[in-house]
Here is the input.
Amino acid sequence: MHLPDSLQDLAYSDAVRFLRRPRSISRMLAGVFSLVIFSSLLTDGYQNTTDSPQLLCVLKSNNTACSFAVGAGFLSFLSALVFLALDAHENRIASTRFKTSCQLLDFIVAVLWAGVWFTGFCFLASQWQHSRHNHFLLGNSSAKAAIAFAFFSIPVWVFQAYMAFQDLRKDVPVPYKRSLDEGGVVLNTLTPPSAASPVSISATSSAVSPYLSAPKGPRLAMMPDN
Here is the structure.
């Protein structure tokens, strides 16, 4: 099948290649799952019973369960968007220390969200199991969707933690030393000693010795008698 040049350019563009990466797909899935969780319970999670006009959570009439799902889903959605934006600008980050900090933060956040959604899935499923399904007129499908997507969020965040851990293993910290010329920190790899090292050390010491030598004291000159 022959595609027009414009579609071919779009298929091989940087944006499409970025969105097709496994990391980007996992972040988008995490954002979509979180959006489904908090939006379903926010819209249909609070219902009134057949004999009362008061709005209660469809999960065992426990408002804490709905509040937890809505709050965790919203924060998880924001986290997925933030790290997706950082991935889009990772080529513009020149600082190695800042990039390593972002990778470490990515790993910690992914592990935390995996634990939060595992706990949330167990909590929401327990509340749904002990709730009366015919007690509310609506909201049963929203509760089932929130529980299901809370379970689906667990492997997604575990995969993101695995990807962040692999990136941390690849980026090994480089030893550094202080430069005498610029007065800043310059990254240098430590080379093993060789036969030419005494020559380089002597040349370096001779070049630096005029600046590191101690100042000499003033000399006394003998003045002739008149």
